[in-house]
């Protein structure tokens, strides 16, 4: 066995892992492959045709470098790991994204890279612009805003704002989400590629967009500065300010850039202007600066020339593709609108169906209630008809009762007239009796007065007779003369009146006169009592007749009302005893008189 046979065979391939902004890929590469072979493989895999913006970047110690396409991959300072890791990123940025980025995949890769740089604060962005950019990012990811689907909190897992912006204001995540959603709701109808393009159009106006920064020192003064390389040219910044450059050298104003180890020389196109020199201490960084300057300058000059056939074809295809997608989106939008209208119509029809079902159910219930009501009304009509017949019958009876009451009332009026006539006669009789009674009372008073005067005269006569007797007794005894003959009554009265000495008045006559007066008084009292009894009976009879008439009138009205209601009652008649009692109560007037 020879010594050469003992040596290990060198592998013919090596492993490579390429990380894009949205995917990771692994390839098995041949040892002899150059950087262009690997780059073309990645571009074909991704489907990218605008390859001049991108490159494969790898990490070298404390900096990074871009894979050179003209050298073999393994001959460069790539990591010795297996697999070797590369990042497929945009190396150069366009001046106007809307005009230069043709393919949708190119736009998408730029969108993802710029978005990451803004969130990692490699590109400064104000809070207002950050919220607007976040709204376009949400539109690109979720499509049109739907409040029924996008509930509060649906952005909780998405990183949309730089941490610096979140720390700058004392706002909760819900408050930031509300602000982003308010802008997001206004982007309705924007497709994903259009939302990403709007994002890039806003981002390209940011000061730090597409700028690669490198630490440098100025000639002689050893002052620390920053060099910025972008699609517009070269810019010199203070270390503490990456937004506003102190000095700028546009590509159109640079005649030449020379590099000698650590020294860079920028010669303006205008020979009168001063040549600017700066230094960079790291050789790898110097090579990277030169590489970026050459690439950006080439693209700057390329933009100002007529597009190549390949670019023209790509733009034409992209235009056709955009037109086709736009038409597809329009068709999809119409179909979506039609589907939404159909769904709304379906919902309306279902709602209308439910409404009609409810109305039908209510109508059925109303029909059942109407039938029940009709049965009840028919039954009530039958009852009402029977009641009408009964009322007609009772009305006829009431009419008969009314006629009978009218006859009774006429009789009662006649009886009343007769009783009133009797009452007037009784009143006249009572007046006469009262007058006679007063006259008799006056006569009795005169008689009593006469009796009293007679008694007084008798007493005086007796007294005087006694005095005369005492005086004349001795004379009588002396002469013994016989008594004189008695005189007639008229003469006695005359004598009594004219001469008291001749009065002869006995006690028996006085008693007889008193008895006659007493007898006449008793007779008068009996007649008066008899007359009062007659007046009481007449009064009772009159009151009874009046009460009977009132009851008949009230009974007639009551019976007529009740007959209309179906409740006819027979009129009540007061018995004769009540008639007498009413008659006696009305005669109380004559008792008072």
TrEMBL record:
Keywords, sorted A to Z: Cell membrane, Coiled coil, Membrane
PANTHER family: MERLIN/MOESIN/EZRIN/RADIXIN
Location in the cell: Cell membrane
Major localisation: membrane
Protein's name in the database: FERM domain-containing protein
Positions with a binding annotation for a 1,2-diacyl-sn-glycero-3-phospho-(1D-myo-inositol): 68-71, 287
Single Gene Ontology MF annotation: actin binding
SMART domains, per the entry: B41, FERM_C
InterPro entries: Band_41_domain, ERM, ERM_C_dom, ERM_FERM_C, ERM_helical, Ez/rad/moesin-like, FERM/acyl-CoA-bd_prot_sf, FERM_2
Coiled coil: 315-464, 521-555
Membrane topology: Peripheral membrane protein
Secretion signal span: none
Transmembrane segments: none
Highest taxon in the source lineage: Eukaryota
Pfam families tied to this protein: ERM_C, ERM_helical, FERM_C, FERM_M, FERM_N
Domain FERM stretches: 14-304
One cellular component term from this protein's GO annotations in UniProt: plasma membrane
Record keyword Magnesium present: no
Species for this entry: Gasterosteus aculeatus aculeatus
Keyword RNA-binding: no
